[in-house]
Structures are given as structure tokens and as C-alpha cells.
Specification:
Radius of gyration: 16 Å
Mean pLDDT: 90
Number of helices: 4
Order of helices and strands: HHHH
Structural class: mainly alpha
Helix content: 55-70%
Low-confidence stretches: none
Strand content: under 5%
Largest sheet: none
């Protein structure tokens, strides 16, 4: 595939968006996934499958239209999570 065509790798972007929507916390201290699925174990399983599917499709089908944007978002999320982990660890060390 070229960068100008939809392919199966283009599904990685909607998978990532669904994953982020499922884990967004609402004012009632619940997530959209828990509101929709009503079961915490099922919500966690579906979220992990969406994230894993997004990662796999973005790296396996690199030349599809939205795969590059998905890889960029995944890297940005990873850097943010790593930064948060470092800040938490430094806070524990210097407490």
C-alpha cells in the first residue's frame, strides 16, 4: 500500500481512539467502557485488545494512510507515561 490509500493498517487509528475513549474518566469516577459494557473485566479485556490491535496494525502495515499518525500518537503516549513514571519515582525518592 502507499501512503495515499486506505488499507487494513488504517484501522489502527480508530482502534486507538476507541481505546482512549474507553479509558476516559468521567465525573462519576467511571469510564466509558464500564458504562457501555457493565463489567470491569470485560472492559479491561476489550481495552487491551484495542490497544494491542492498534499497535500491531500500525507497525505491521506501516505504509497505510493513518498508520503513521497512529505510530506517532503511540510514541507520544509512551513518552508521557514514561515521564509520569519518572516523576512519581523521583517523588518517592525525595519524599
Amino acid at each position: 500500500m502507499t501512503n495515499h490509500k486506505f488499507g487494513i493498517g488504517s484501522l489502527s487509528f480508530p482502534f486507538l481512539l476507541l481505546f482512549m475513549a474507553f479509558n476516559m474518566i468521567y465525573p462519576q469516577r467511571t469510564t466509558l467502557g464500564l458504562l457501555v459494557l457493565r463489567n470491569e473485566a470485560l472492559e479491561t479485556t476489550v481495552s487491551l485488545l484495542l490497544l494491542g490491535g492498534s499497535i500491531y496494525l500500525a507497525w505491521r502495515y506501516r505504509d497505510d494512510l493513518f498508520a503513521g499518525a497512529t505510530r506517532w500518537l503511540l510514541k507520544a503516549l509512551g513518552v508521557m507515561m514514561l515521564g509520569i513514571a519518572v516523576i512519581v519515582l523521583l517523588g518517592e525518592i525525595f519524599r
